[in-house]
Predict the 3D structure of the following.
Amino acid sequence: MSGDPTGDGSGPEKAPADGDLSARLKRLETQLEGKRPKAAPSSAARTGASGGSAPLGQAMRLSTEFIAGVIAGGIIGYIVDHLFGSKPWGMIVMLMLGFVTGIYNVMRVSGFSGRKTEKDPRQES
Amino acid sequence: MAVSIDPIHQFELQPLVTLGHIGKQQLAFTQSALYMFAAVGIIALLTIVATAGRSVVPGRLQSLAETLYEFIADTVHQATGADGKRFLPLVFSLFMFVLILNLLGMIPYAFAVTSHLIVTFGLALVVILTVVIYGVAKHGTHFLGVFVPSGVPKPLLLIMVPIEIVSFLSRPISLSVRLFANILAGHIALKIFAFFVVQLLVAGAWGVLSPLPLALTIALTALEFLVAALQAYVFATLTAVYLADALHPGH
């Protein structure tokens, strides 16, 4: 909306300093980065970008993440059984693994796991 | 008096033009395809025609298009960083497609395309295949680093790597099931509660109670509009998050 990035880059006080385009672009980027936190203070608050409905989206995510883990495990187990003729065992093992994966997915989405601090904020949204 | 309810009927595919047969399977241009074409048409109208003027002070339509674009551009930028910009067209297309289809489905008597699992799964498959193909093409075997979580003790990797693999495979499922289930459940709930009004009205004295489900139907309609927009947003956000893995695998 505030479509004046060029106006920002060629600000009256700094524009003539460097003619180099890439340097100017880089400076523009840092300026934009400086401005961005006002709109979205942190990655956690970014989920608030869609108004108060973000927690609702989060809640919808949690259930499906869990179910998807179990379903994926079941499908893999079925395929393994089909390929290797290991009738019940592939399904049993992979379903359990899928169950674990589902819980792991939920923990990751809800930001429950302490590790992977770099990956988590993105997963959280 | 015996009015029967069939909340599933609205999701049936009706062939408009039959094209032929493969085996016993009919090939047809269904109303689902028609709605998809309509959605593409609306998106094109919104993004091409509305921004054709390119006025500095945007009009209503141009402002809407620009807002949507910047919203998605922001989401993609924050999820993937600077080099994720090449995926912006993909994410924006998916977002607009899902959003318009969801909103089209909210029109009374209209057909909700995204209530079909195969449609949403197709969209999710596009995302995941993009992630895999781009990741392998760009990073080669390094892409497998996406399955190795960082900061985990070596012995634990024996368990964590299979979990990560299953987790990765569950992504297209969760992506598609979430969208499909939300739209399907919402439309069924709307239909059933709306039908309660009719059932109470034909039940004599019970008709006094009919405003209750009517109020609930109105509230549900508002909720469904929220869900329609929210699911499109969630779909786009998760697409961006998954694409970030293709750009920077292995943390």
Residues 1-17, 38-52, 115-125 of chain A have pLDDT under 50 and may be disordered. The helical segments of chain A are 5-9, 21-39, 43-46, 54-84, 87-109, 120-124. Residues 50-124 of chain A form one domain.
